[in-house]
Amino acid sequence: MAEAHPVGFQWVMEAKRRGATVIHVDPRFTRTSAVADLHVPIRAGTDIAFLGGLIRYVLENDLWFDEYVRAYTNAPMIVREDFRDTEDLDGLFSGYDPETGSYDVHTWQYADADVEASAGFRDEQRAMAQEHERGEIAGSGGAPFTGTPTRDDTLEHPRCVFQLLRRHYARYTPEMVQQVCGIEPDTFLRVARALTDNSNRERTSAFCYAVGWTHHTVGVQYIRAASVLQGLLGNIGRPGGGILALRGHASIQGSTDIPTLYDLLPGYIPMPHAHREQDLASFVVNNAGEKGYWGHMDTYLVSLLKAWFGDAATRGNDFCFDHLPRLDGDHSSFPTVMAQARGEVPGYFVIGENPAVGTANSRQQRRGLANLEWLVVRDLNMIETATFWQDGPEIATGEMVTEDIGTEVFFLPAANHTEKDGTFTNTQRLLQWHHKAVEPPGDCRSDLWFYYELGKRLKARVASSTDPRDRPLQDLTWDYPVEVGPTGIAEPSADAVLREINGRHADGTPLSSYTEMRADGSTSGGCWIYTGVYADGVNQSARRRPGREQDLLAHEWGWAWPANRRVLYNRASADPDGKPWSERKKLVWWDGERWTGDDVPDFPATTAPGHVPESQTAGAASIAGNEPFVMQGDGRAWLYAPAGLLDGPMPAHYEPQESPVPNALYPAQGANPARQQFPSPENTYNPSGEHFPYVFTTFRVTEHHTAGGMSRWTPRLNELFPEMFLEVSPELAAERGLRNNDWGHVVTARSAIEGRIVVTDRATPLRVGDGNGGTRVIHQIGVPWHWGPNGLSTGDAANELLSVALDPNVHIMETKAATCDIRPGRRPRGPALVRYLADRRRAAGLEE
Amino acid sequence: MGSLSGPLDDPTRDAGYPADHPGRVGFFTDTSVCIGCKACEVACKEWNALPADGVSDRGAGGDVLGMAGMGYDNTGGLGGSTYRHVAFVEQRVPASRSAPTDLGMPSMDLPGATQSGEHRADATEVRWLMSSDVCKHCTHAACLDVCPTGSLIRTEHGTVLVQSDICNGCGYCIPACPYGVIDQRPGDGRAFKCTMCQDRLGAGMAPACATACPTESIRFGPLDELRAEADARLATLQSHGVTGARLYGRDPDDGVGGDGAFFLLLDEPEVYGLPPDPVVTTRDLPSMWRHAAAAALAVAATVGAAFVGVRR
């Protein structure tokens, strides 16, 4: 966190100054480790074994927050009789189909309740797709839910969630953690004690993570494991608690809220599928929850359609619901690029990304780029994605010839964040407005300018068309005011866009809350969860009252969705009767008439603690007074996910796609059985064994930014970290003959990359179980991913090394744990590199 | 010109400013909260428009831009175009945690398992110290004392400043600095060092490095307040068992009369590349002049005596 989020890390240092214990669990010893109270080196890709060990420690030592767990989590819920755990099925949950490599998730549900869809769709294939879609909804809430599950509040029923958890994690002992993760039991116990000593009525603990947790074939389950632990410890919805996702860029949270994802509409409303939801009403019935705030999805969706299609959207035409695109398959990033390579995708916009070096198996990415008709790259600098056809690695090896590449490349220079107005949405859901400081130079333009101008031109082209397929473009509202700057650039007003996102009443006055949205077409709003950011006609995200002039929560700094609430599910900071669990950790409470406190209550303001709803199907009105998790169908934190996930209701340790050791917990399984794999000649997976004996993990340094598009052209950053490097321990250096600051190269089945060797005591070899009752040493190599061939500071790209294997829930690639070999000296160049890699693959038995 | 060594309450007044001059300001760099982000280095170079070493806007130019071979420190030290430098010190120190417990696991530590590439069995752990170094703005600044052109001056804020428009590049100041801070810029010839952002101070702003520091490791303010803050921070750390913590350059009785930029360190100064007992190099100047004068007088007397003898 100190490396990649140094500005946010100031608050960790502030907490430390006030006495907090900071523990850093990471395969590498980083700048974060340097200031932590304890650094715990871990074998990359084994965090679920570690977190599962902590869950077991809590359960076996009676350390859970008992009142919280009974009242606010689904620990008492009873699961279906036909559910089978990994303990029963050799590492698989019930419902696994080896043919498709996926799960039928029905047996994971609660007994006597239906947590999946309504009963309308019985076609198996559709049901699976629907489950997948519902997994996405959980990005903002829980899976939709009907019925009343059976509970055992004594937590003794053998099929209640609490007992299932206990059984599932029984073998995650400190000794098992040592075998799998390479963490000594005394170190593990130090962590366990620190965590549990600081999790109770008087104290809370928080987990912070970044892509080190998500970039795995079991990435979603890593976060679930932390959720289970925090639920058991009562650390959700309380000040100082939580699970904090540190996003990878300045506004990645914003680009999930108002998504750049193919299968979501703004505010985590799913994108409709072809041939399923035929009209608005059936879409809403199939996707909205009956209970909780998802019960009002119709108001959010109709307001969105009104924002997009304006007066053209009427009740008579389903508010233009048919104008929305329909999904007909998996159009996520990697399948799209593979389709490009097959020549099935004509055009591609690349905005603010650099896939030619920034995406796993970047050779595969370039193969896709080379098979397009046209490619638009908008960036600050002439990045590799714009020049692959001219001087990319395949040109050097002779595998591609410039003259043979038909892709027409348009490079459009972009304005950077200091050259345009707009918001960043950070990891805390906080929207912060930034004002333009300087005019963009030359032909550089903001993304807003680009899309607005592109839209105007497209609309002009279809203005007189009578083709029905052009109706969505014709009906689209596209009338933003422009502001002409001192250099004559007519920039669309970002402020006007934010107003549109916030939403309006029919008379044009701004909405102040999404609860004001209506399904009758009388309100509009571009993203329901952002409603309120322009409440009272004021840009709330531009507020900058300093923290020292406010209380700890600083509600007048920027604006957080939803409703400027700073801690989600904060009803859980009070006990079931509405009294704070402790004076020290009070946040919101029931004052006898309404919810009040230091934060905006995340609960219906006048629903009393003792309220029992009459109906289970009335949206927010059906929330009981003691159910803090208002976005969940059952109002509870899920220690067990009865729906919404595709690879298991409870996190289980699976090895990475490429691992040097067998799975010690489930020997019959290696990696996540439900992961997505794409075996092909250019995406071969390393076998385990002597040919790729080491583990590598990719990482960032403070001095550079992601794939380097912003930092490799910045002299004052480049002098601080001028070259690609490879971080190894003295022990590995001795084993492979590597010398500090000399060249070395890392090899996988995909590629070989070189860098300067950094030999450091910070890198620690770990001793883990070898799967045969013995132990072995695992060396881990640190590979930063900032470099590429262009810019002032150049070097090989780490993503050349990686294969594509994905988490099944969110299609994220595994970049944080893979196997490799490392050798002294530079890698072969030109055609010799192709021969070298073929030799290595042959030796490993991957090629004839 | 004022005094050359010893305790001195007000170097600004000593330099001839009127009594109502602004108070003395300085830096207190608390290395115990430094995260090594180098924001200070970048902010300093940006504000002061200093060139990036080894990089031009046109490209790195072959092997000009390279790793220093010192891990995360590719700056190396302070210099003519580097006024802030974050040192990274990797150490192996005795493990603070209790000795590993033998759980009797038969699979661990098999006889003969130890070989090349073995994990570490010694009870040490890694410590990575980070510290942002800067010109110390000494109470008695030898660079200033030796400057023949008057380019180096004491400012109204009590800091030490090179006026580059007057500097003639003679380089006398460079060996005079007991810390090795001030240096000539290659290709320019004149001497440069931290100005404490004199242009910002005049506008009532804090220096760029202190403004950019995310963890308040670099603190800027009135020197007397910083000293009190530092004393309190040291006491807190020591009460938490951080026995290696110490202040460096805070003491007005030290060899340079105390630093205007002082530090809280977690180990011996040498570990960070700082001299353990710096002395203003002009401390002995008065006695040298006295000795020289005495010698001259003696010579004159002897010569005079000789002539007296001749007359006889």
From TrEMBL, chain B:
Location of the protein in the cell: Cell envelope
Any Pfam family: Fer4_11
Name recorded for this polypeptide: 4Fe-4S dicluster domain-containing protein
Transmembrane segments: 288-310
Region of interest (Disordered), residue spans: 1-21
Keyword Ribonucleoprotein in annotation: no
Lineage per the UniProt record: Bacteria, Bacillati, Actinomycetota, Actinomycetes, Pseudonocardiales
Record flagged with keyword Cell inner membrane: no
Keywords: 4Fe-4S, Iron, Iron-sulfur, Membrane, Metal-binding, Repeat, Transmembrane, Transmembrane helix
Superkingdom of source: Bacteria
Domain 4Fe-4S ferredoxin-type positions: 25-55, 126-157, 158-187
Principal subcellular localisation of the protein: other
